[in-house]
Amino acid sequence: MDGIGPPISHVNNNNTAEVATMGSSLPSGTERVSTSVTPDSSLEILSRREIEQLYDASQAELYQIYRQCSLAVLNCGSSEDDTNKVLEAYASFDVRIIQRERGIKLEISNAPAQAFVDGVMIKGIKEHLFAVLRDIIFVQNQLRFNPYYDLSTSSGTTDAIFNILRNAKVLIAEKDPNLVVVWGGHSISREEYDHTKAVGYELGLRGLDVCTGCGPGAMKGPMKGAAVAHRKQRIGNGRYLGISEPGIIAAESPNPVVNDLVIMPDIEKRLEAFVRVGHGILVFPGGVGTAEEIFYLLGLMLHEDNQQQRIPIIFSAPETSADYFESIDRFIGLTLGADAQTMYDIIIGEPDAVAVRMLESMDTVRNIRCDARDAFYFNWSLVVPREMQLPFYPSHENMQALRLNTQQSAFETAVNLRAMFSGLVAGNVKAEGIAEIARHGNFQITGEQSFMQAIDGLLLSFVEQGRMKINASDYRACYDIVSEA
What we know:
Blueprint: E1 18-21, E2 31-37, H1 48-59, H2 62-74, H3 83-89, E3 94-100, E4 103-112, E5 116-117, E6 120-121, H4 123-145, H5 154-167, E7 179-183, H6 190-205, E8 209-212, H7 221-232, E9 240-244, H8 246-249, E10 260-263, H9 267-277, E11 280-283, H10 288-302, E12 313-317, H11 322-335, H12 338-341, E13 345-348, H13 351-371, H14 396-401, H15 410-429, H16 431-440, E14 443-447, H17 449-464, E15 479-483
Parallel strand pairs: 7-8, 7-11, 8-9, 9-10, 11-12, 12-13, 14-15
Antiparallel strand pairs: 1-2, 2-4, 3-4, 5-6
Helix pairs in contact: 2-4, 5-9, 6-7, 6-13, 10-15, 11-17, 15-16
């Protein structure tokens, strides 16, 4: 049976890749590769029904999402974080799913050449490519059409997240808590990157594994450091788990250290996956995406049903960036109050101290899970309220409607601030957000004057420090701050 997409003219009958010089849509000298690949470990054995489901799903609107995520994986190592520019540069890229009696095969047309060595796809990138196929097409197809999953309820959404992770085989039973979720910016300074790598190294020496958003910068550094340390400690099964989502993966292509990649359907399910699988949260300097993650986490901790949760949270930065978390801490105090400031520790410098603190916290997490008779591999007892599970669509109307004032609880404020930062991430790097700004102009962020002053000050500091995008010199603000009368 034929696959999807246009015919491929560069694929040989013997499955060896051919290289062609790119056209005018890419810089001079850039090459593209066309080839066919089969899975090594994921999706290699499928029933006829499963193959048909894959084929049927790929014919629908999910195919464009699948194509975009596949391109992102193959574009690993790129310094471009504008989704539209990536898609434009590789406009001729395509991927076709071929049904065979022995399983499936992907035929790839005009892929970035950096994904290949001597015409052969790098093994780790190929694993990521089939992880995309597994999650974007197969899993989402199951969730959309299987009546078992009721995504209109909180418990149904959590069940769906659990099954996506279980299907990806990243939930490991009978293993003590040791997975540290690391958040931070994809656009950071060299000093900050070196710090993230040093902290990751110290974590790895103590047998701790790392989970990140899987991109560059503060997501890559800890994994590289931990990988070296695991080798030194002769830990052969170190985990470097990357969790992404379709809207952000093209801007933050998976880094090559990731050995388990999971693509969640949207940012809200991605955030919930982080806090369900992780045993501690470590935050490095970043921009609005990191701020979104911080306020999501603090919102959970401020919810009345999570008072017994004690998730270890550490903010860490090199001494040269101490003012970053001073600004974040001040902003949290102004918007959420003093109670929220007690929920995390700030450690400047001292990578070993960060790792020691996190390792000590693993015993606390273990005891809490045992007392609650909860699993180590998935935090079922954590309450994620419905308003934090609903996808936030960053339209101008929704951004302007956010309530940003002191006339609500700290939990409600955290939920609204998380949504605001999510909208700014979309306006900066996501294709749909960039298109929204192009059509209707900047987002209008409105609210109480004291809030607007605090938000304006924080965002300006992100711009001045080049934290909004990798290509900071080309940054144009996607927002306007408007104080209510």
